[in-house]
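hey so u asked for the seq, here:
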Amino acid sequence: MSVLGVGEGSSLFMHGDAWLRGAKQAAEKGVSRDQILAATVGRVERARADGLIGVEEQAYLIAQKAYAEENDPHSMAELAGIADGFGIAFDDLFTHLHLGTLGDLAKGASRDVDGCSALAAGNTEDGPLVAKNRDYSGLHLGVQKVFRHTGPDISTGTMIAIGSLGSPCAYSSGMNAAGLLLADTQVGVRAHRVGWLRYFLMNRILATCATVDEAIAFVRKVPHAGGGTLVLADRTGAAAAIELGAHAVAVERGGIARRTNHYVTSELAAETLDPGDDRIAANSRRRLDYLDHVLPRIAWTVADLMQVMARHEEDGPQSAPVCQHARDGGAQTISSAVYSWRDRCLYFHEGNPCLGNWKRYAL
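ran it, structure tokens below
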């Protein structure tokens, strides 16, 4: 079924092996290479100038690259295809994906903030649903795309995902044809190690897992770089939230899964970094309190979630800035997504969802 007032969108169809799917990004019309450079290499250059990439951080990146080459060759091949297609150095793109981690490692250095609010439920009036507001650098406005991926390394059928040109497929959220839906949030943390980077992890989960249980089993058996959360739902009605620590993984199953930009479990809450002057990280608890208040009180239809994701702090009592607007060139809500398994589609809004310009993208 379609939600009233939502237009039809056209996704980018990426078919082939991982390298080819990455290289096809460069064929997309309407976005210049300069935009991609600003959103990726430009942020890396600023991080270097801000002192985020010293000797220790560079050594960490080298170790991370070796780990990913051994354990996730498909994601590395996709990234290589992106680099080759746009004519960008592979190491710059790899570093760009680690900027959140590098900001944590270089404690005290200025960080390029990113946030996000994500929620999931498996048993709702409209079936399994996952929703996310993507709070990130405004440089990614205009380079965000909805991708549909198929290929020999994807055993779960077609994947539909939100990402950005210059970055891997599921750089923000996604759903596969087997009925698994997921989204992530960033968390600044006190500890990192060599292991799975969340952006690569999301791709592999969508490419190989059909259920929440399968995803949890995969997450628990591998080491993680640390930082961030996942919320998931599947066609069986299961839902879960996963906190990805460097030295522990915390899982909450069932009911309504929701996360913002801090850890909440007893295992990992103390790992969250003080947000300092990071506006979006600093209001993470207010956003989670609002979700805790409102989510049990709604019918959990697609339309309900669209309204939740458009909420501002000034909209009423017990409200919060779920829809975040840009200040001083910082991060903002650059998109909103609601994935519906029953409708077999993604409802996507580029920019602040309060504007009400949603489009539907079929799986």
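DSSP finds twelve helices and 15 strands in the chain. The two ends are 13 Å apart (CA to CA).
lmk if thats what u needed
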